[in-house]
Amino acid sequence: MPTSSTVTITREDDGNVIAKGGDTLANTLLTRAGFIYEKSIRTFWYRLHWDTGKQSENQRASHAARMLTAVGYDVEISPDLVIGAVTTPPDPQGNRVYGHQILALTDQLNGANSSAAAAGITEHVLDPHDGVLVRLGEFFEAAAEKAKETGNEEGWDLTDDFTEAAATLTSLGEDLHVATDRFRALDLPPRPSWQARVVDYYASAPATHHPNVASPSEAPVAAPPSAPKPGRTR
Q: CA of 36: how far to CAs of 74, 137, 139, 152, in Å?
Protein backbone atom coordinates (compact mmCIF):
# COMPACT_ATOMS: atom_id res chain seq x y z
CA MET A 1 0.00 0.00 0.00
CA PRO A 2 1.47 3.39 -0.93
CA THR A 3 1.94 5.76 1.97
CA SER A 4 2.11 9.53 2.33
CA SER A 5 2.54 12.00 5.17
CA THR A 6 -0.07 14.24 3.52
CA VAL A 7 -3.82 13.62 3.65
CA THR A 8 -6.25 15.62 1.54
CA ILE A 9 -9.94 15.84 2.44
CA THR A 10 -12.26 17.33 -0.17
CA ARG A 11 -15.86 17.38 -1.30
CA GLU A 12 -16.15 16.08 -4.85
CA ASP A 13 -18.39 17.58 -7.54
CA ASP A 14 -20.95 14.84 -6.90
CA GLY A 15 -21.11 15.84 -3.21
CA ASN A 16 -19.13 12.92 -1.78
CA VAL A 17 -16.48 13.69 0.85
CA ILE A 18 -13.24 11.94 -0.07
CA ALA A 19 -9.92 11.60 1.79
CA LYS A 20 -6.72 10.52 0.05
CA GLY A 21 -3.18 9.80 1.21
CA GLY A 22 -1.85 8.61 4.52
CA ASP A 23 -1.05 5.08 5.65
CA THR A 24 -2.35 2.42 8.03
CA LEU A 25 -2.49 4.82 10.97
CA ALA A 26 -4.32 7.41 8.87
CA ASN A 27 -6.73 4.67 7.85
CA THR A 28 -7.42 3.93 11.51
CA LEU A 29 -8.03 7.58 12.39
CA LEU A 30 -10.24 8.20 9.36
CA THR A 31 -12.25 5.07 10.16
CA ARG A 32 -12.80 6.34 13.70
CA ALA A 33 -14.09 9.58 12.21
CA GLY A 34 -16.64 7.65 10.14
CA PHE A 35 -14.81 7.21 6.81
CA ILE A 36 -14.98 4.00 4.79
CA TYR A 37 -11.84 2.51 3.27
CA GLU A 38 -11.94 1.94 -0.49
CA LYS A 39 -9.28 0.67 -2.89
CA SER A 40 -8.60 -0.18 -6.51
CA ILE A 41 -5.69 -1.94 -8.20
CA ARG A 42 -3.53 1.19 -8.22
CA THR A 43 -4.62 3.31 -5.30
CA PHE A 44 -6.80 3.67 -2.23
CA TRP A 45 -8.97 6.35 -0.67
CA TYR A 46 -11.56 6.94 2.03
CA ARG A 47 -15.11 8.27 1.84
CA LEU A 48 -17.97 9.15 4.13
CA HIS A 49 -21.33 7.40 3.92
CA TRP A 50 -23.41 8.86 1.09
CA ASP A 51 -26.43 9.47 3.35
CA THR A 52 -24.52 11.16 6.17
CA GLY A 53 -25.86 14.67 5.56
CA LYS A 54 -23.78 17.79 4.91
CA GLN A 55 -23.62 19.01 8.52
CA SER A 56 -22.46 15.64 9.82
CA GLU A 57 -20.02 15.31 6.90
CA ASN A 58 -18.42 18.62 7.81
CA GLN A 59 -18.18 17.62 11.46
CA ARG A 60 -16.58 14.28 10.64
CA ALA A 61 -14.16 15.73 8.10
CA SER A 62 -13.06 18.44 10.53
CA HIS A 63 -12.70 15.94 13.36
CA ALA A 64 -10.59 13.67 11.13
CA ALA A 65 -8.39 16.60 10.17
CA ARG A 66 -7.79 17.51 13.81
CA MET A 67 -6.87 13.92 14.75
CA LEU A 68 -4.52 13.54 11.78
CA THR A 69 -2.84 16.87 12.46
CA ALA A 70 -2.36 15.96 16.13
CA VAL A 71 -0.25 12.90 15.24
CA GLY A 72 1.89 14.66 12.63
CA TYR A 73 0.15 14.38 9.26
CA ASP A 74 0.01 17.34 6.89
CA VAL A 75 -3.71 17.77 6.25
CA GLU A 76 -5.14 19.69 3.33
CA ILE A 77 -8.89 20.10 3.86
CA SER A 78 -11.33 22.09 1.77
CA PRO A 79 -12.36 25.29 3.59
CA ASP A 80 -16.06 24.49 3.15
CA LEU A 81 -15.58 21.35 5.27
CA VAL A 82 -13.92 23.08 8.22
CA ILE A 83 -16.04 23.70 11.29
CA GLY A 84 -15.32 23.94 14.99
CA ALA A 85 -15.53 21.09 17.44
CA VAL A 86 -18.92 19.52 18.09
CA THR A 87 -20.48 20.96 21.22
CA THR A 88 -23.58 20.40 23.34
CA PRO A 89 -25.07 22.50 26.17
CA PRO A 90 -23.44 20.31 28.88
CA ASP A 91 -20.10 20.40 26.97
CA PRO A 92 -19.72 23.84 25.37
CA GLN A 93 -15.97 23.35 24.86
CA GLY A 94 -16.42 20.15 22.85
CA ASN A 95 -14.17 18.09 25.13
CA ARG A 96 -16.30 14.92 25.08
CA VAL A 97 -15.32 14.12 21.50
CA TYR A 98 -16.10 10.40 21.69
CA GLY A 99 -19.57 10.94 23.06
CA HIS A 100 -20.15 13.47 20.29
CA GLN A 101 -19.16 10.84 17.72
CA ILE A 102 -21.91 8.59 19.05
CA LEU A 103 -24.29 11.55 18.91
CA ALA A 104 -23.35 12.09 15.26
CA LEU A 105 -23.92 8.38 14.63
CA THR A 106 -27.38 8.68 16.16
CA ASP A 107 -28.11 11.64 13.90
CA GLN A 108 -27.10 9.54 10.91
CA LEU A 109 -29.40 6.74 12.03
CA ASN A 110 -32.31 9.16 12.41
CA GLY A 111 -31.68 10.40 8.89
CA ALA A 112 -31.30 6.98 7.25
CA ASN A 113 -33.75 6.58 4.36
CA SER A 114 -33.59 2.80 4.00
CA SER A 115 -33.20 -0.29 6.16
CA ALA A 116 -29.87 -1.04 4.44
CA ALA A 117 -28.52 2.40 5.34
CA ALA A 118 -29.75 2.03 8.92
CA ALA A 119 -28.11 -1.39 9.17
CA GLY A 120 -24.80 0.01 7.93
CA ILE A 121 -24.87 2.66 10.62
CA THR A 122 -25.91 0.12 13.28
CA GLU A 123 -22.87 -1.99 12.38
CA HIS A 124 -20.62 0.72 13.83
CA VAL A 125 -22.09 -0.10 17.23
CA LEU A 126 -22.76 -3.84 16.95
CA ASP A 127 -19.81 -5.14 14.92
CA PRO A 128 -18.47 -8.02 17.08
CA HIS A 129 -14.83 -7.11 16.46
CA ASP A 130 -14.58 -3.32 16.22
CA GLY A 131 -18.04 -2.06 17.16
CA VAL A 132 -18.69 0.52 19.84
CA LEU A 133 -20.30 -2.06 22.10
CA VAL A 134 -17.37 -4.50 22.16
CA ARG A 135 -14.83 -1.69 22.54
CA LEU A 136 -16.84 -0.22 25.39
CA GLY A 137 -16.79 -3.62 27.09
CA GLU A 138 -13.00 -3.69 26.73
CA PHE A 139 -12.87 -0.19 28.20
CA PHE A 140 -14.69 -1.32 31.36
CA GLU A 141 -12.46 -4.38 31.64
CA ALA A 142 -9.43 -2.09 31.52
CA ALA A 143 -11.07 0.23 34.07
CA ALA A 144 -11.61 -2.78 36.36
CA GLU A 145 -7.93 -3.70 36.18
CA LYS A 146 -6.90 -0.12 36.82
CA ALA A 147 -9.15 0.11 39.89
CA LYS A 148 -7.71 -3.19 41.14
CA GLU A 149 -4.20 -1.73 41.07
CA THR A 150 -5.07 0.53 44.01
CA GLY A 151 -5.08 -2.53 46.27
CA ASN A 152 -7.64 -1.13 48.71
CA GLU A 153 -11.18 -2.16 49.51
CA GLU A 154 -12.83 0.72 47.67
CA GLY A 155 -10.79 -0.12 44.59
CA TRP A 156 -11.94 -3.75 44.74
CA ASP A 157 -15.57 -2.63 45.03
CA LEU A 158 -15.13 -0.42 41.97
CA THR A 159 -13.47 -3.31 40.17
CA ASP A 160 -16.56 -5.42 40.75
CA ASP A 161 -18.81 -2.67 39.35
CA PHE A 162 -16.68 -2.23 36.23
CA THR A 163 -16.47 -6.00 35.72
CA GLU A 164 -20.23 -6.30 35.97
CA ALA A 165 -20.65 -3.49 33.44
CA ALA A 166 -18.29 -5.25 31.03
CA ALA A 167 -20.21 -8.50 31.42
CA THR A 168 -23.51 -6.72 30.76
CA LEU A 169 -22.16 -5.24 27.53
CA THR A 170 -20.82 -8.62 26.43
CA SER A 171 -24.20 -10.20 27.06
CA LEU A 172 -25.93 -7.39 25.17
CA GLY A 173 -23.61 -7.89 22.20
CA GLU A 174 -24.40 -11.63 22.18
CA ASP A 175 -28.13 -10.91 22.25
CA LEU A 176 -27.83 -8.52 19.30
CA HIS A 177 -25.25 -10.42 17.24
CA VAL A 178 -27.63 -10.84 14.27
CA ALA A 179 -29.56 -7.60 14.75
CA THR A 180 -27.73 -5.86 11.89
CA ASP A 181 -28.60 -8.64 9.44
CA ARG A 182 -32.21 -8.54 10.59
CA PHE A 183 -32.23 -4.76 10.16
CA ARG A 184 -30.83 -5.04 6.66
CA ALA A 185 -33.50 -7.60 5.73
CA LEU A 186 -36.34 -5.30 6.74
CA ASP A 187 -38.39 -3.83 3.96
CA LEU A 188 -39.31 -0.25 4.71
CA PRO A 189 -41.99 0.69 2.14
CA PRO A 190 -42.20 4.33 1.09
CA ARG A 191 -44.83 6.33 2.90
CA PRO A 192 -47.79 6.93 0.55
CA SER A 193 -48.83 10.46 -0.29
CA TRP A 194 -51.93 11.94 1.32
CA GLN A 195 -53.74 11.67 -2.03
CA ALA A 196 -53.03 7.94 -2.16
CA ARG A 197 -54.20 7.53 1.45
CA VAL A 198 -57.51 9.28 0.62
CA VAL A 199 -58.04 7.02 -2.40
CA ASP A 200 -57.28 3.92 -0.31
CA TYR A 201 -59.68 5.09 2.38
CA TYR A 202 -62.63 5.47 0.03
CA ALA A 203 -61.75 2.27 -1.82
CA SER A 204 -61.81 0.25 1.38
CA ALA A 205 -64.69 2.02 3.16
CA PRO A 206 -67.81 -0.18 3.46
CA ALA A 207 -70.85 0.93 1.46
CA THR A 208 -73.63 2.46 3.58
CA HIS A 209 -76.90 0.54 3.27
CA HIS A 210 -80.33 1.64 4.61
CA PRO A 211 -82.73 -1.26 4.12
CA ASN A 212 -85.82 0.69 5.24
CA VAL A 213 -85.41 3.54 2.79
CA ALA A 214 -86.39 2.79 -0.78
CA SER A 215 -84.71 4.54 -3.63
CA PRO A 216 -86.90 6.45 -6.14
CA SER A 217 -86.58 3.61 -8.63
CA GLU A 218 -87.63 1.14 -5.99
CA ALA A 219 -90.74 3.04 -4.71
CA PRO A 220 -93.71 0.67 -4.16
CA VAL A 221 -96.39 0.77 -6.87
CA ALA A 222 -99.90 1.49 -5.60
CA ALA A 223 -102.28 -1.47 -6.24
CA PRO A 224 -105.52 -0.70 -8.25
CA PRO A 225 -108.79 -0.86 -6.28
CA SER A 226 -110.27 -4.33 -6.30
CA ALA A 227 -113.50 -4.88 -8.27
CA PRO A 228 -116.59 -5.97 -6.30
CA LYS A 229 -117.17 -9.68 -6.34
CA PRO A 230 -120.20 -10.81 -8.42
CA GLY A 231 -123.37 -11.95 -6.71
CA ARG A 232 -123.09 -9.62 -3.82
CA THR A 233 -125.52 -6.69 -3.47
CA ARG A 234 -126.56 -4.52 -0.70
A: 20, 24, 24, 45
Q: Which burial class, exposed, middle or buried, applies to 78 when counting CB atoms under 10 A from its CB (0-12, 13-18, 19+)? A: middle
Closest CA to 27 of 18, 36, 14, 40: 36
Q: Which residues of the chain have pLDDT under 70?
A: 1-4, 85-86, 93, 187-234
What pLDDT does residue 33 have?
86
**Quick one: pLDDT at residue 174?**
93
CA dihedral 69, 45, 124, 76 (to 10 degrees): 20
CB 16 within 8 A of CB 47: yes
CA dist 110 and 37 (Å) reads 23
Helix (H, G, I), strand (E, B) or coil at 74: strand
φ/ψ of 225, rounded to 5, equals: -65, 140
User: Are residues 86 and 59 in contact, defined by beta-carbon separation less than 8 angstroms?
Assistant: yes
